[in-house]
Design brief:
Layout lengths: L5 E12 L2 E13 L4 E5 L6 H8 L7 E10 L2 E5 L14 E4 L3 H4 L6 H13 L3 H14 L5 H4 L9 H13 L5 E5 L7 H18 L2 E6 L2 H7 L2 E6 L2 E7 H6 L4 H8 L48 E3 L2 E3 L15
Helix pairs in contact: 3-4, 4-6, 6-7
Length: about 325
């Protein structure tokens, strides 16, 4: 990719716990272009949110950046080469929508006051000017009667509307990158569609780049340009949306796609991936997916590196082989 906006290079994040060292992110490398939407998918605990928090500079004790680097427009943000924490980037040029809108807003402050804090901090507006801008932001995310609703508290909003408020706060500083961590969690299907349509519209209007963290492959197919699949703290496959869905190369990606219900096919039962993800205090040697892979072989005990496969990259010695085919099991 020419001149990427965001570069993550061999990022490693560890957490010191009473049970031992947890290697939450293990050598993640990614790039994101201008105006691009990257889907980051994988099971819970695979390291998706921790990767996003590292990009935002939100890894605190007992966590730490154990290695690697994050660069924004070529400037070091995290890790190697950072002389001081570039706070003018976080929250202004890079913003994040956190997982749960129900708990992300302060229940003791009005929505207008919370929006006003962001507007004052990053745009320098106060008083009537800040209130006018806050109303404009609520209107931009589809909340009617914006001026009146500024004086209401979060409990007076539905879940979908609270998520819209979180999006309004995230775009208040007119960022270039928006990280959306499970932005449709706990919302019904109709509201999910509205939120995704809103994100797509904001991207087109503002020229945003988006990192979308989700479990829902249907969302990825409809909104993203490229996909990165995470498993056990590592990237196991990257590629364009079309290539990933048409020709998944890694057995884990194949399993995720096969386990998604389809409208054009009738199955007696859904395909499932047996077993559970490994604990990251003692990650398995070689391919982390090997204990659950139906096509595992002796070569899988060696470390697997991302290598070119089709239009993307896959970390598997049998890339492209249908591991879930009966003959491979």
């Amino acid at each position: 990719m020419n001149d990427p906006l965001l570069e993550i290079d061999d990022l490693r994040v560890d957490f010191d716990t009473r049970a031992g060292l947890v290697q939450a992110v293990r050598g993640v490398s990614l790039t994101l272009g201008r105006g691009e939407t990257l889907g980051l998918v994988g099971e819970s605990g695979s390291g998706k949110s921790v990767t996003a928090q590292a990009v935002m500079g939100l890894i605190d004790v007992p966590g730490r950046i154990a290695g690697g680097a994050v660069r924004w427009n070529g400037m070091p943000l995290v890790g190697e080469g950072v002389r001081r924490r570039p706070r003018r980037i976080w929250g202004r040029e890079i913003t994040m929508i956190f997982q749960n809108p129900m708990t992300s807003l302060n229940p003791l402050m009005t929505v207008g006051a919370q929006l006003g804090e962001v507007i004052h901090l990053y745009l320098g507006l106060r008083g009537a000017a800040a209130r006018t801008r806050a109303a404009e932001l609520l209107d931009a995310v589809g909340i009617s009667g914006a001026s009146r609703r500024l004086d209401q508290y979060p409990h007076e909003f539905s879940g979908g509307m609270r998520q819209r408020v979180m999006i309004a706060m995230a775009i208040a500083s007119e960022p270039r990158l928006l990280i959306a961590d499970e932005p449709t969690t706990a919302l019904d299907v109709t509201i999910q569609a509205q939120i995704l349509e809103l994100l797509a519209g904001l991207q087109e209007k503002l020229g945003l780049s988006i990192i979308l963290i989700t479990h829902d492959l249907g969302i990825v197919a409809g909104l993203c340009h490229r996909v990165a699949v995470m498993y056990a703290g590592q990237i196991v496959e990257t590629g364009t949306v079309d290539d990933i869905f048409a020709r998944p190369g890694h057995p884990y990606t194949q399993g995720l796609i096969r386990s998604t219900p389809r409208l054009d096919a009738v199955e007696d039962r859904l395909v499932s991936i047996d077993g559970t993800p490994p604990g990251l205090r003692t990650p398995p040697e070689g391919c982390a997916f090997r204990p659950r892979c139906p096509a595992a072989q002796a070569a899988c005990h060696a470390p697997q590196r991302l290598a070119s496969h089709g239009a993307g990259h896959v970390a598997c010695c049998r890339a492209g082989v249908d591991a879930w085919d009966v003959g491979a099991a």
